[in-house]
Write a structure and sequence with these properties.
Largest sheet: 6 strands, antiparallel, barrel
Number of strands: 6
Helix content: 55-70%
Strand content: 5-15%
Strand order of the largest sheet: 1-2-3-4-5-6
Shape: globular
Radius of gyration: 20 Å
Oligomer: single chain
Number of domains: 1
Distance between the termini: 10 Å
């Protein structure tokens, strides 16, 4: 029998602190890899790499704070007017299933509002980056139009509509895949504990998180590869590219899910775990 819980609210402070801390580590690793790569390409280290790295890290921190605080705030606000997202929790140590449609709808509504706010800023910023258009054209000529396609959507006013539709589709698919893989694995293993009316996510199992995230990324890689192949009209030539998306998607997803879980467990002990307000659902 399912033990369904309504996700009534998300604690803003804990999710912002933990999420920002995890993204900070990821940005730090990215900057190190980028610095090494640029040094190898140029043949020497340049102090400008450090300046770029600091900008990336600082920007990541600012954006992460806005992302986690803002999205959680919007969830807490809109969920009162919509159907609650339900989570099937087994024995306070496993998440078995997440309700697909309510989760997809709230994600789409939040994405729509965020895109309306950010689109003018993004469009104006890209307009003044004069090097961007030649860069995109060069990428097309170099045969990497698969990377140009999603970027080009930003230049259309329909970007807001695209965000809404993509949020519904990807959240629906991602949640559906999560539920199926979770059932096979016996659930996403974690440790939950009660703290007053709040439920704390004390830890997340890196292995199951990595497998689930890797599988979701794998199928998204397949999905994107097929869509791009159809739109480009050159499906046979893009089979290899689609295969790379699939394999690369699983590897990247597995690494991301595993490492992020390890980081979460570390920061949860250091700063305190993420807190959720859950209530029993009337089945």
């Amino acid at each position: 029998m399912k033990d369904l819980k309504n996700l009534k609210s998300i604690d803003l402070s804990t999710i912002t602190i933990i999420g920002t801390s995890i993204n900070f580590i990821w940005s730090l690793m990215f900057v190190i890899i980028l610095t090494i790569a640029l040094s190898l390409v140029i043949g020497k280290f340049n102090i400008s790499f450090v300046i770029i790295g600091i900008g990336i890290i600082f920007g990541t921190i600012i954006l992460s704070i806005a992302e986690y605080f803002g999205v959680s705030f919007l969830y807490n606000f809109f969920i009162k007017k919509m159907k609650y997202v339900q989570i099937d929790i087994s024995g306070m140590d496993k998440i078995i299933e997440i309700s697909v449609l309510p989760f997809a709808l709230i994600a789409a509504v939040i994405s729509l509002l965020v895109s309306i706010i950010l689109y003018p800023i993004i469009f104006l910023s890209l307009t003044f980056v004069s090097i961007l258009y030649p860069l995109l054209q060069a990428m097309i000529f170099k045969g990497v139009s698969w990377a140009v396609f999603p970027i080009s959507l930003i230049f259309s006013p329909l970007f807001i509509f695209y965000v809404f539709i993509i949020a519904i589709i990807f959240t629906t698919i991602g949640t559906y895949i999560f539920n199926k893989i979770s059932l096979i694995l016996g659930g996403l293993k974690l440790s939950l504990s009660k703290n007053g009316k709040m439920t704390e996510i004390c830890s997340i199992d890196p292995k199951t998180a990595g497998i689930i995230t890797g599988t979701i990324f794998l199928l998204f890689g397949l999905f994107y590869g097929l869509i791009f192949s159809i739109l480009s009209g050159n499906f046979p030539a893009n089979i290899i590219l689609t295969t790379v998306f699939i394999i690369g998607g699983f590897i990247c997803g597995f690494v991301y899910g595993t490492v992020s879980s390890v980081l979460y467990n570390f920061f949860a002990k250091k700063f305190g775990p993420v807190k959720l307000e859950l209530e029993c659902s009337e089945q």
